[in-house]
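Risk register update: the risk of archive-format incompatibility is retired. Evidence:
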Amino acid sequence: MSSRFAIDKTLTVNDLRFHYRDWGGRGWPILLLHGLSSTSHIWDLVAPLLSEVARVVALDLRGHGQSDKPDSDYSFETVGGDVFDVIVQLEMDYPVIVGHGWGANIGLWVAARDPDALSGLVMLDGGVVDLGGMSWEETLERMNLPSAGGTPLGQFRANLRERAPQGLMTPAVEAAILSKYEVDDDNLIRRRLPRDYHIRILRSLWETRLEPLYEQVACPVLILPCRRSRGDEPDDTLRRKEAGVNRAARLLADVEVRWLENTVHDAPLQRPHRVAEEIIRFISERI
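Archived output:
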């Protein structure tokens, strides 16, 4: 039975407690993976639409959201291993993984490590840019998020509304963004993912080459890259993404590319209906 609302649940994998959101639904199992420093709530607007045709679960990955945050390794071997074990525990046989940003890279690693594990992979604005083309110092400069620690909650909310694209900042979107932060007794916020862990994940992304992974993937893949209007995105950033998409399209055995135009990185919040439509179409036509 599908639902507009998720049930928050937990399970234990590798002696760690993992939080996930379960929308129920009948049909092909879909496991939703969020991006770096995000949470399962990034899918709150997309998942209810998917649950009309699929069984839908969104996971808080290790170190993120309400899942445990061990002072440990955050490599693809470790985080991807968590995902394999979650799939087994939830009895999601041959699921479709839908990954956003870093979550797309995790899904790609899972699909490459065990080509028979998934029935499909959707990479939403992730899994295509190989950071090895930059130095480690440049990667840190570009992708090490500024600290939000110590910002009053009211000021942070005001900043969100001021900077968001027109019409984007609804209460549901604000709640999804705020899920990335904890609020202390003084009403000050801080990120749920510790900065040191963020850097460990960046290092793993920087060290991992994508081409060998593409060559091992057997399941159908849908790439949904986002592209803002010209002039709103740095030229070198867009060039890297377009080149990465072209490389992935050339090396993956069974792949389809559908650009999301005039769309920011957080497409699940800006264009949830379009994202859901593409995923549902992909499953109905290819799975």
